[in-house]
Amino acid sequence: MSVLETVINNSFSPYTNTCFHAASLHGICVACNSMVDEHYLYRRPFDHLSPGLQLTHDAVALTKRLATNSSSLGEQKLHLVLDLDHTLLHTTEVSRLTEAEKYLIGEARIRDDLWKLKSSDFLVKLRPFVRDFLREASKMFTMHVYTMGTRSYAESILKLIDPDRFYFGHRVITRDESPCTKTLDFVFADDRGVMIVDDTRDVWPDHQRNLIEISEYNYFRKKSSQHSKPYSEEKTDESENDSGLVKVFRLLKEVHCRFFRVREELESKDVRLLLQEIEESNRV
Ligand SMILES: [Mg+2]
Ligand SMILES: [Zn+2]
């Protein structure tokens, strides 16, 4: 039984009007079938996990704590939240390609790091090392995608980078659930065990200390006024030396290593403090 199922099957919230149970589907309690107030303050929607699902805040808090405890004590994994655009890839509209970039439309059919999305006018370029990054990071982290793109965009991208959902499962949060800013409230893990990799710091107002800000990956030309030639026109790409993903991976590995160094201290470890510690020692 998953941690989430354990929580759902236990009634422990003293706050709800109708019953004490933690989860409801479309306004009906999943444990006792009574009606619950969907607009009740102590409930939060989790439609991305299952349409109509709401959980009480207590259930979410408990699930988070159990998830981090069990994955850190068990398979020695932490949680990692990954942004898509400019972090793992760069997407542009075909109609915005410059003359010097149009050769890419033909190349998209044969290259394995460049695709034209079937249902739309988008061309997607993967950041170098993205596949190695996902493979290696998945050994240390349970991974989540968190994007300001729509769900249908996220689904098309996942078909390219994780077709069997080996890395991300259903752990995908999009603009549809989280339209303005990003928050770890939707991520089933304790904040002390979650790292975020994103090129935009501002979208994480409440979780800056969990964040590793990665350099923004741009492959295509952004504006016609841009002075230097983009990788697309130069026919080059980020190299291993200046690769944002390689640098971030080293840092993730360091945090993971420090978190698990002393087994007896696992329950008090906090990635936010470890990140700060590493930053400070790098400054000296
Ligand atoms: Mg981004
Ligand atoms: Zn109930």
TrEMBL record:
UniProt-listed SUPFAM superfamilies: HAD-like
The keyword Ion transport is assigned to this record: no
Record-listed E.C. numbers: 3.1.3.16
PROSITE patterns: FCP1
GO molecular function: RNA polymerase II CTD heptapeptide repeat phosphatase activity
Record keywords, A-Z: Hydrolase, Nucleus
Pfam families the UniProt entry points to: NIF
Superkingdom assignment: Eukaryota
Residue ranges of every copy of the FCP1 homology domain listed in the record: 73-240
Entry keyword Zinc: no
Enzymatic reactions: O-phospho-L-threonyl-[protein] + H2O = L-threonyl-[protein] + phosphate; O-phospho-L-seryl-[protein] + H2O = L-seryl-[protein] + phosphate
NCBIfam families xrefs: FCP1_euk
Official protein name in the record: RNA polymerase II C-terminal domain phosphatase-like
Taxonomic classification: Eukaryota, Viridiplantae, Streptophyta, Embryophyta, Tracheophyta
